[in-house]
Write a structure and sequence with these properties.
The chain has 130 residues and is mainly α. The protein contains five helices and no strands. The mean pLDDT is 85.
Amino acid sequence: MQRMRLTLAQMGLQEIDRLRHEGVRDPQALDALTTHYSQESKDAKDRLSNLDIADEDRFRTDFSRLYRRLLTMQKQRLLDARQESLIGYENFERLTADIDAGLLEVETNADGLIERLLLPEQERLEKKAP
C-alpha cells in the first residue's frame, strides 16, 4: 500500500509540473499542492523504509515485479509489431517463447533467476578486484 501511495504522490507531482509549464494555473495553488504531494511522497518513503521486511526479501520482491513488468511490456510491444507486420511469424514465435520462458522463470524460480542474471556481474567485479 505504501508503494502505491508513493506512486500516486509522484504522479500528482508530475501532473503539477506539467500544469506549471502550461502557465495558466495559479502559481500559489500549484505551490500549495506541490507541498502537499511532496509531504505525501516523503511520508510514504519513510513508511516504506520502516517496514519489517528484510532488505533481501524487498530486493527479491521488487526484482521479480520489475522483471515481470518489463517482460510483459516487451511481449506487448512484440504483439504490436506482429500486428503491424513489422516482424515475421517465425521470429515472433521465437521471441514470444523467450519472453514466456522468462515469465515462467520469474514465477517459479525467482531466486535462481536473480542468481543467474547477477552472477556474471559479480564475477566481473571479482576479476577487477586485486
